[in-house]
Amino acid sequence: MIERRQFLIGGGAAAVALGAGGLTGAVRANNPDWVPGYKSSLDDDGLHSQPWFHQGFLNLKEDLEEAAAAGKRLAAVWEQKGCPYCREMHKRNLALSEINDYIRKHFLVVQLNMWGSRKATDFDGKEMEEKELARRWRVNFTPTVNFFPATVAEVEGKSGLEVEVARMPGYLKPAHFLTYMEFVRDEGYKKESFQRYLLAKFRAIHDKGGDPFRLDKLTRPQS
User: Fold this and answer.
1) Global pTM?
2) In terms of C-beta density within 10 A (0-12 exposed, 13-18 middle, 19 or more buried), how is residue 57 classed?
3) Which of 93, 130, 148, 185 has the fewest other C-beta atoms within 10 Å?
4) What is the pLDDT of residue 125?
5) Where do the H-state alpha helices sit in 121-193?
């Protein structure tokens, strides 16, 4: 039986104990699905970035329209220069093919800088610098990922803080990270908390003889 505390261990930023020097080796050892082809790069602001992150005009309503037209959900990921857990998210989680492929298939991801000065337009049409938007949305640490409704009609005249449907607070280990993405995609937030969703999923995999902490057991049908 999987206990509640087992799957919550390592769910927050404090759980990351890998040093920068040994990160690549640790990723290989702890993640059998690790794919070296998935690499991040540093952008002009010193943020780790993925080539498939959405490159728009930071107009959140327009980004939501584009995501909806493609049958995807909109996610905004907040990062900052020098953030070790942001680096961990890129170098460990997004280096796994199953996570990388799942997000690219189901989400349009906008990257925001918690201390940035680029102009961004909230869903209600108010324009401000990224750092002001971070304060408006009450983003206090990185990484933070905000998830939004599936349609533009649901955000009319409201701020991102008012309309977000879920928030991933801090760094989550790969299995938890992917399950959170599935939780949003499946609209699990309409029925239960993420903790209940995660526990039910992990228990179902465990009861069928699988290992819920192996990514290849999470999203594929169980016989």
Assistant:
1) 0.80
2) exposed
3) 185
4) 98
5) 130-136, 160-163, 174-185
